[in-house]
Amino acid sequence: MNLFGQKDRGNHVSGVDRGKVIMYGLSTCVWCKKTKKLLTDLGVDFDYVYVDRLEGKEEEEAVEEVRRFNPSVSFPTTIINDEKAIVGFKEKEIRESLGF
């Protein structure tokens, strides 16, 4: 699934490499926007996907990816290095996980 670069679906924000960081969220979610802003303000290189802007197979694949780390499929879910998931806006945990 390559969603990145497609309008309003998945995007890349350039910054300092702190590992592979992907934030899955909803375009209408306040906590998702706060998480995206935190990552941007930290200057971290990351990708983000607004799952509610996807359709069909793309949406199913994104939901399954989130479910691997977060069985309740709630948002935001931030996945770091395909190993750790941070569910919700948890500023301290995000900072610590990224070495800040």
UniProtKB/TrEMBL annotation:
Domain of life: Archaea
Boundaries of every Glutaredoxin domain copy: 21-83
Disulfides per UniProt: 29-32
CDD domains with a match to the protein in the record: NrdH (cd02976)
PROSITE patterns associated with the record: GLUTAREDOXIN_1, GLUTAREDOXIN_2
InterPro entries given in the database record: GLR_AS, Glutaredoxin, Thioredoxin-like_sf
Name of the molecule in the record: Glutaredoxin
Protein species of origin: Methanosarcina mazei (strain ATCC BAA-159 / DSM 3647 / Goe1 / Go1 / JCM 11833 / OCM 88)
